[in-house]
Design brief:
The chain is α/β, with parallel strands linked by helices. It has 2 domains: 35-156 and 315-379, 3-Layer(aba) Sandwich (Rossmann fold), CATH 3.40.50; 159-288 and 381-417, 3-Layer(aba) Sandwich (Rossmann fold). The protein is 38% helix and 19% strand. It is built from 13 helices and 15 strands. It has helices at residues 6-16, 48-66, 84-96, 108-124, 158-169, 186-202, 223-231, 244-256, 272-276, 297-309, 320-339, 350-357, 414-417; strands at 35-41, 73-79, 101-104, 131-134, 151-153, 177-183, 207-214, 236-239, 261-264, 284-288, 361-364, 367-372, 377-379, 382-389, 404-412. The strands form 3 sheets. The protein has a 7-stranded mixed beta sheet, sandwiched between helices. Strand 8, helix 8 (244-256) and strand 9 form a beta-alpha-beta unit. Helix 2 crosses helix 11, helix 3 runs parallel beside helix 4 and helix 11 packs across helix 12. It starts with 5 loop residues before the first helix and ends in an 11-residue tail after the last helix. The relative contact order is 0.12.
């Protein structure tokens, strides 16, 4: 692609073009400068597999964008090791390296630290403002009391996910006792708090027979926890655990012979279905914004295209929200560029991009979503699935080559999934 420098265009117009000479030779054969995105994520340590899975999703989305005309993106990765200080150090490096779009999600604690740092940075250095796009950090406070003009969340927050699960739990007549367990940080605490509240409102007959938080990503043996769960007499476990903390918990429950259900936020990926195997049929329930077995032509084509890009079973981790995030970013950059009368190759005005991000509406693979300007919480449908063997009705696709997939049993519209916000947005 050719870019005409302002000096060359002025010289051409004033001198050469007056002589009716061709001006094409002043076109500089300079490639379009891509817009730098910095993914700050835990890429090493116990949850490194989750970070790598996110990277596969984001780079696939970027590849599709770059194959089209218009905006070009460059995705760079920074390892936070899941730690706040490492995430903040990565943020400084990313900004110094020219990144103006920050992507993160696999820790609400990291997200909160980044929001605070970005707020301060953008106030201190308005010429180097950055935008924070969050694909997985679902502590509700991030779009409530901690909301920021510079932060946009594309995942349903924990209270929204819990409400979708409760749509299924309220009809589980066999459930008399529930065990609540989670990771001991802001997100895990929020999940347990909301589980208590919603059970009290919708299923006051269900007793909470056990409740505890455990250190995140540090427990190697969940057998003591699983033993307590079984001894409690619970018919179900409700957990927001993710990564190895979920996989190891489910494995331990299987070993001790726990026969109850698992109502989860993330039981549909990263080894969990293979870990529990046959014991999970009809018993592992997961909520998500999308599942591969959503029965639409658009969804089917989307998932098949992902498997063409990543044919290895171990790489089978795809989330629609990460794809919609990149599409929303491109839409906002395009809109901001047109509003500012500059080409998409010009470094975008971050404040203007944020203003246009507030009203994006995107569709991909049959899934649609819109950004809510009040709190920058993306609004989209949610689905709840239950684990079953591949090949049974509604389970065309399995997970990670395990032979088990998730059949959609509940679809929650975006309007029904929406919850009020206490955000008091401060805008520049």
């Amino acid at each position: 692609m050719f870019i005409v420098s302002r000096w060359a265009l002025k010289f051409c117009t004033a001198a050469l073009c007056a002589l009716a000479l061709p001006c094409s030779f002043v076109l500089a054969q300079t490639p379009v400068a891509p817009i730098k995105l910095a993914m700050i994520e835990g890429l090493s340590g116990p949850n490194g597999n989750a970070g790598e899975a996110v990277y596969r999703n984001l780079i696939w989305a970027v590849e599709r964008v770059n194959a089209r005309a218009g905006v070009k993106l460059l995705l760079e990765r920074y390892d936070s090791k899941g730690q706040n200080e490492e995430a903040l150090s990565a943020l400084r490096s990313a900004i110094d390296n020219g990144a103006r779009i920050i992507l993160q999600g696999n820790s609400s604690a990291n997200a909160a630290a980044l929001i605070d740092a970005i707020n301060k940075h953008n106030s201190r250095e308005p010429d180097k403002r950055v935008l924070f796009l969050n694909y997985s950090a679902v502590d509700p406070s991030l779009t409530n009391e901690k909301c920021s003009f510079w932060h946009f969340r594309f995942d349903a927050h924990a209270d929204m996910r819990m409400a979708a699960l409760m749509d299924v739990i309220k009809d589980d007549k066999a459930l008399k006792g529930a065990y609540l367990i989670g990771q001991d940080y802001s997100f895990g605490q929020a999940v347990l708090r909301e589980a208590r509240r919603q059970l009290g409102a919708l299923r006051p007959d269900v007793h909470i027979v056990g409740e505890e938080l455990h250190p995140m990503a540090r427990v190697k043996d969940f057998l003591p926890y699983a033993t307590k769960i079984k001894a409690s007499g619970a018919q179900a476990v409700i957990t927001g655990n993710w990564g190895n903390d979920l996989t190891l918990l489910i494995k331990a429950a299987k070993e001790v012979g726990f026969e109850g259900k698992f109502y989860t936020f993330y039981g549909n990926a990263l080894g969990a279905p293979a870990a529990i195997g046959e014991a999970g049929i009809g018993r592992v329930v997961a909520v998500a914004e999308w599942l591969p077995n959503v029965q639409t032509a658009g969804s089917d084509a989307f998932y098949r295209s992902f498997r063409v890009r990543y044919p290895q079973a171990a790489d089978d981790y795809v989330h629609m929200r990460m794809q919609l995030l990149i599409e929303a970013l491109v839409q906002a950059i395009d809109s901001a560029s047109k509003a500012n009368a500059v080409g998409s190759h010009i470094a975008p005005d971050i404040a203007l991009v944020a203003a246009h991000m507030e009203r994006v509406s995107v569709t991909l693979g049959g899934q649609s979503g819109t950004m809510r300007a009040q709190d920058h919480q993306f609004q989209q449908p949610l689905v709840v699935g239950v684990m079953d063997r591949q090949g049974t009705s509604g389970v065309k696709y399995d997970v990670e080559g395990s032979g088990y997939g998730f059949r959609v049993v509940k679809t929650v519209t975006a309007e029904s999934a929406e919850l009020p916000s206490s955000c008091k947005m401060l805008r520049p």
